[in-house]
Amino acid sequence: MHRLRTCAAKLRPLTASQTAKKLSHNGPAVSRTFQQGRFYTAPVAAEPFLSGTSSNYVEEMYFAWLENPQSVHKSWDVFFRNANAGAPPGTAYQSPPPLGTSMASLSSAQSVMVAQPNVDKLVEDHLAVQSLIRAYQVRGHHVSKLDPLGINIVAFDESGNAFPVGPSSLDIAVCKERLKRLTVGAFYGLDESDLDKVFHLPTTTFIGGNETALPLREIIRRMEMSYCQHIGVEFMFINDLEQCQWIRQKFETPSAMQFTNEEKRTLLARLVRSTRFEEFLQRKWSSEKRFGLEGCEVLIPALKTIIDKSSENGVDNVIMGMPHRGRLNVLANVIRKELEQIFCQFDSKLEAADEGTGDVKYHLGMYHRRINRVTNRNITLSLVANPSHLEAVDPVVQGKTKAEQFYLSDTEGKKVMSILLHGDAAFAGQGIVYETFHLSDLPSYTTHGTIHVVVNNQIGFTTDPRVARSSPYPTDVARVVNAPIFHVNGDDPEAVMYVCNVAAEWRSTFHKDVVVDLVCYRRNGHNEMDEPMFTQPLMYKQIKKQKAVLKKYAEKLIVEGVVTQQEFEAEMSKYDKICEEAYARSKDEKIMHIKHWLDSPWPGFFTLDGQPKSMKCPSTGLSEETLAHIGNVASSVPVEDFTIHGGLTRILKGRGEMVKNRTVDWALAEYMAIGSLLKEGIHIRLSGQDVERGTFSHRHHVLHDQNVDKKTCIPMNHLWPNQAPYTVCNSSLSEYGVLGFELGFAMASPNTLVLWEAQFGDFHNTAQCIIDQFISPGQAKWVRQNGIVLLLPHGMEGMGPEHSSARPERFLQMCNDDPDVVPKMMEDFAVQQLYDANWIVVNCSTPANYFHVLRRQILLPFRKPLIIFTPKSLLRHPDAKSSFDMMLPGTEFLRGIVEDGSAAEKPKEVKRLLFCTGKVYYELAKERKNKNLEAEVAITRLEQLSPFPFDVVEKEAKKYSNAELVWCQEEHKNQGYYEYVKPRIRATTRRERPVWYVGREPASAPATGNKNTHLQELKRFLETSFNLEAFSNLNN
Ligand SMILES: Cc1ncc(C[n+]2csc(CCOP(=O)(O)OP(=O)(O)O)c2C)c(N)n1
Ligand SMILES: [Mg+2]
Question: Which residues surround ligand 2, an ion (CB under 5 A)?
Answer without folding.
Answer: 423-425, 457, 459-460
